[in-house]
Amino acid sequence: MSAGGVWGDVVGQDPAVAVLARAAAAARRGAVAGTPGGASGMTHAWLLTGPPGSGRSVAARAFAAALECTDPAVVGCGTCAGCRTALSGAHADVTVFSTEHTWIRRQDVEPLIAVAQRRPSVGRWRVIVVEDADRLNETSGNVLLKTIEEPPPQTVWVLCAPGVDDVLATIRSRSRHVPLRIPPADAVAELLVRRDGIDPAMAAFAARAAQSHVGLARRLARDEGARIRRREVLTFVERLRGVGDAVVAAGELVEITAEEAKASTAERDATERAELLRALGADGTATPPPAVRGQVRQLEEDQKRRARRAQTDVLDRALVDLLGFFRDVLVVQLGAPVELVNGDMAGGVRSLAGSSTPEDTLRRTDAVQLARERLQQNVSPVLAVEAMALELRPSAR
Question: pTM value?
Answer without folding.
Answer: 0.74
